[in-house]
Amino acid sequence: MKHQTQVELTRAVFHHLAQGTTDVASEIYRNPVAHYISAERLARERTDLFLGRPLMMAMSCQLREVGAYITCDGAGVPMLITRGQDGVVRAFLNVCRHRGARVANGCGRNENRFQCPYHGWTYDGAGHLVAVPDKRSFEGMDRAEHNLVPLPAVEQNGLIWVCATPAGTDVDSLPIDIDKALAGLGSEFQSFNLDAFHHYTSRQLRQKMNWKLVIDTFLEPYHFGVLHQDSIAPIFFHNLCLFQAFGPHLRVTYPRRTIETLRDRPETEWDLVYHSALVYVLFPNTVFVVQGDHLEVWRIFPVEDKVDETVIFLDFFVPEPVTNQSARDHWDRNLELVTGVVCDEDFPTGEAIQFGFLSRAQSHMIYGRNEPALAHFEKTVTAALTR
Ligand code: FES
Ligand SMILES: [Fe+2]
Fold first, then answer.
1. Is the CB of 97 under 6 A from ligand 1?
2. How far apart are the first and last CA of the chain?
3. Pairwise CA distance, residues 107 & 70, whole Å
4. Is the minimum distance from the CB of 129 to ligand 1 under 6 angstroms?
5. N or C, which terminus of the chain has less Cβ within 10 Å?
6. How far is the CA of 120 from the centre of ligand 1 (A)?
7. CA-CA distance, 176 to 153, in Å (whole number)?
8. d(Cα 278, Cα 296) in Å, to the nearest integer?
9. From the CB of 116, is ligand 1 less than 6 Å away?
10. Are 74 and 301 in contact (CB under 8 A)?
11. Is 256 in the pocket of ligand 1 (CB under 6 A)?
12. CB distance 121 to ligand 1 below 6 Å
């Protein structure tokens, strides 16, 4: 983040602290409960958001080396993402062109060869079918027409974006304009130098709540002093955040109480990033948290056609390779704090909210003016569906 931006945001924090205020929306917002329990609504979200838009699927540092690959089914199709011999990151439908088995599972690194575990058809890192055992039995089949199906993919500023719907067959000319899609956030992400980070560990969680409720969890500090009074309330300010929209995306700045120490320092030394948690929503489904000394990336997907079930992939990144036990202990404690707060405090509340929706107690939820990021996210989802 540009230093000038850090200074401006820090000044805004000090202003709010002096006034007892927070960033606000222009008005309260009523969000229909139907958006969280309607199967028809979820079907449109899956088609228009998860299949129809580029999704932030991985960080470059997860695929640093040639032959590194990851797989993910979250978007509703089996996806394989890999770095080819030429260093280019490509994505494919993880579907063997023989009879459809997955050609890769989990994540790892290979010699740019994906051998299908069913009958052994083999593809290279660019998706070309390079070997067919007993090929005389497939006489008449054009091998070039049986490459893996490419998905549009782009790597930029340390992030890898993939569209879950094939665009065509020319894997190297695919239509994701990520600069445009990031709506001004690109340079901010560039400043974080994400390539320098290292993947530490990943977790996969399942929750009985709508995928949007999981994202909502991260978007306001109005609950910090209540739900989190014994966990993170001593670290952050209650009901104080800064909000900024970037097209469909957004940033919420949660200052840490330690930001007060900057008052005694010249503005040239103000380091907002270190003294805050920056929560970005990379629309539609990634919550990207810059924690000063590490990164948490939460990618959130509905489970099939279930309105009340979500799968969450949490990837944890640290600034240096972890090579000894004391570093491991340090990052494990960090991870436990984060997952403890979210999984023991936020998510049970979210699951209760989802259950309560079915009681018909209310037709809508109400977001206060002090919850501007919630309103932006929910309005953006709705707008993306009605386009
Ligand atoms: S399904 Fe992959 S080789 Fe048969
Ligand atoms: Fe929370």
1. no
2. 32
3. 4
4. no
5. C
6. 6
7. 7
8. 10
9. yes
10. yes
11. no
12. yes
Tokens 């209310």 belong to residue: 362
What does the pLDDT profile of the chain (387 residues) look like in tens digits?
Answer: 999 999 999 999 999 999 999 999 999 999 999 999 999 999 999 999 999 899 999 999 999 999 999 999 999 999 999 999 999 999 999 999 999 999 999 999 999 999 999 999 999 999 999 999 999 999 999 999 999 999 999 999 999 999 999 975 444 444 678 888 888 899 999 999 999 999 999 999 999 999 999 999 999 999 999 999 999 999 999 999 999 999 999 999 999 999 999 999 999 999 999 999 999 999 999 999 999 889 999 999 999 999 999 999 999 999 999 999 999 999 999 999 999 999 999 999 999 999 999 999 999 999 999 999 999 999 999 999 975
The Å distance, Cα 117 to ligand 1 centre, comes to 7
Q: What are phi and psi of 55, to 5 degrees?
A: -115, 145
Q: Who surrounds ion ligand 2 at CB < 5 A?
A: 346
